[in-house]
Amino acid sequence: LVAGNTLLDMYIKCGSIDCASKVFKELHERDAVTWNSLISGYTELCDFSSALKIFSDMQADGIRPDKVTVLNALKACGGGGCLAQGRLLHCSSHLIEIEVDLSMENAIMDMYCRCGSMEDAEKVFTHSPIVDVVSWGTIIEGYSLQGRFEMVGQYFHDMRMQGMVADEGIFSSVFSACCHVGHVNEARNFFVSMREDQRVTPNMLHFNCMADLIGRIGHLADAQKFLESMPTHAS
RNA sequence: UUCUGGCGG
């Protein structure tokens, strides 16, 4: 069983979903891991409807979904923008004796964000007994995707107030929001704070957003100077 | 062997 699952996983990691599904069909024994691998394989390829189809096949086959199953299914719902199905998962996961821990809460929030329902995402966030940098990042990225810069700033501020340190991912979302709405000065402030207060090393994406913004207001020489100040080893 | 946020893979 483990050998079969390992083989299946190998094909998925290589991107050969066809070989993977062939292996899947030939397996005479399948457990939750087998199904989970295939669901995540389709999700990785952005074939969300196939992923959700496998998810329902799994249940039809009498295999009980575990935590990983639900995490993968939530991701597929988010990717496919299937709000109704995602909501159903959210509501039923409590019932089918799956513990709703932090990673589950975060996945649920992410699903709502991608489905465009920030209201639901915020509700989950607010009611979470504990949140981490991923939770904050999920909400911030959610607002960033919607171009809601004021909310990005708000949540970033709240996060700092609670003593949470931002990481590279948070700043990627923040800069992308700045870029989206063309807020140069705000971005500058974030850039300075990133290095001085929070000791996050700016990466290439961060530098690009900054240069784009500076260039956009016509300060091409500044933008160039800025890019030249970028360390060559920046990742 | 399958596992939550940005970019990458």
3D architecture notes:
- It is a single chain.
- With 235 residues, this protein is mainly alpha-helical.
- The protein is built from 14 helices and no strands.
- The protein has helices spanning 2-13, 17-26, 32-44, 48-60, 67-80, 83-93, 102-114, 118-127, 133-145, 149-161, 168-181, 184-196, 204-216, 220-228.
- The mean pLDDT is 96.
- The chain binds one RNA strand of 9 nucleotides through residues 1-10, 12, 32-41, 66-69, 71-72, 74-75, 102-110, 113, 132-142, 144, 167-176, 203-206, 235.
N- to C-terminal separation?
A: 40 Å
Rg, rounded, reads: 21 Å
pLDDT below 50 for ≥5 consecutive residues: which ranges?
A: none
Number of strands: 0
Classify the helix fraction into a percent range: over 70%
**Helix and strand element order:** HHHHHHHHHHHHHH
Instruction: Compute the number of helices.
Output: 14
Note the overall shape: globular
Q: SS-based structural class?
A: mainly alpha
* Beta-strand residue percentage: under 5%
How is the main sheet built? none
Mean pLDDT: 96
